[in-house]
Fold this sequence. Notes:
Elements: H1 28-41, E1 48-53, H2 60-71, E2 76-82, E3 85-86, E4 89-90, E5 111-115, H3 119-134, E6 140-145, H4 164-171, H5 175-185, H6 191-195
Parallel strand pairs: 1-2, 2-6, 5-6
Antiparallel strand pairs: 3-4
Helix pairs in contact: 1-2
Amino acid sequence: NSGGRQMPGHFGQKKNRIVTVSSPVTTQVPHAVGIALAGKMQGEDFVTFTTFGEGSSNQGDFHEGANFAGVHKLPVILMCENNKYAISVPIEKQLACEKVSDRAIGYGMPGVTVDGNDPLAVYAAVKEAADRGRRGEGPSLIETVSYRLTPHSSDDDDRAYRSREEVEEAKKLDSIIIFDEYLREVGLLTDQSLEE
């Protein structure tokens, strides 16, 4: 029994409008859509942003929230973090379409897929979606394709469904490494600045 407490990674901060995520998967989507609706009804100028995994994009809460957001042209960004596994289920066994972002058309919103390991590509997609939302053009679905480098949880033995070689190859594309290389290339990061 949790005693009514959330998991430690589920935090919020009222001052900055960060709503705590509810532990049941995907429930954050209708929550974010509801917040976007409230803001629109009150004439407030903000865009709601929420994230979820590709496994969650198969849940009813995702579809209901996305549909409601599309019908009412709500300023909300739905970001799917596609790490290729819903716990142990590979993406090929989760989708009838090629990409999660392909689902967006059914809800009357644009859907884009970007390299989730490229922070600049993710930033550009989020900025474009936020600008759309602020202009009153409705919601956006962004799929960021990445890879889960660790087991799903401490109970998950990921060796049962993926090889060590697969994980090691994915580690070479870690977004922290990629962004480090970019910052060094443009002269914003050096070994000396890291030591300081």
